[in-house]
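Supplementary Text 2. Reproducibility record for the structural model of the 283-residue chain.

All settings were left at their defaults, and a single model was retained for analysis rather than an ensemble. We include the record here because the model underlies the residue-level annotations in Supplementary Table 4.
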Amino acid sequence: MADARALVHRRAGLRLWLSAGWIALVAAAALLAPWIAPHDPLAQDLFLGRLPPFWMEGTEPGYWLGTDSLGRDVLSRILHGARIALIVAVIAGTLTCLIGATLGLLAGFLRGWVDLVISRLIDIWMAFPPVLFSILLIAVLGPGLTSIIIAIVVIDWTRFARVVRAEAMAQGAMDYVASARVAGRTRIGTMLREILPNVLPTIVVLLTLEMGIAVIVEAILSFVNLSISTDDPTWGGMIAEGRTSVHQAWWVLVFPLVTLFLTVLAFSQLGEGLKDRYDPVLQ
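Retained model, structure tokens:
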């Protein structure tokens, strides 16, 4: 039993460090993109169109991952696209977490009319199809990073609220909560000092998952030209462009697609690893 537990702990630690390492690498690339990108991501040169990656014949020095149909450097565009993806992930994920987790914690612990109002609001909000709702919001607000962030927050706060509400209800039935109330602690004090620390691992997992979802949403909206300007480098825009020329220049599609996949997977595994390592219930 001890050996099995140690093996699970090591695997969780490996998963945690691998995912955190990849996210740190993407974050560093995004921050340093203006200095480490080998070329201007918007510079076009039709004479250099569809150059293959460095290990294939017919390439040019300095274009490590090749070029697209307009001669723009794929690596430079991926690096600059990471900035947009992480901005959306961090801001939208954090705002969604704050709003949804706060409402869920209040509903799950205070119960009564507070729970009734918030639960009915969640049910009404979730009746709208999320994809159509997001497209409608973008159409009303107009394309741009601010519009994307608002759309993600408006749609996804219910995910946090429902899960945190259920966790807060479960924790509220525990003996330690009753002991805190008997000791004279106020309801708000009990919620913040007793319930919140035990719900926090779940919130962290949801936050990392939400960041991954935000990256996907931004990529999808970029794919259908509802994100920022089509000239600006985004992973979704690169995937949309690469799809039209996959038989002539597969690298334009594959490299941003792999980067997107690994980033979303890393956010997911980071949350699971943090929960396995720090969840007090599992400990």
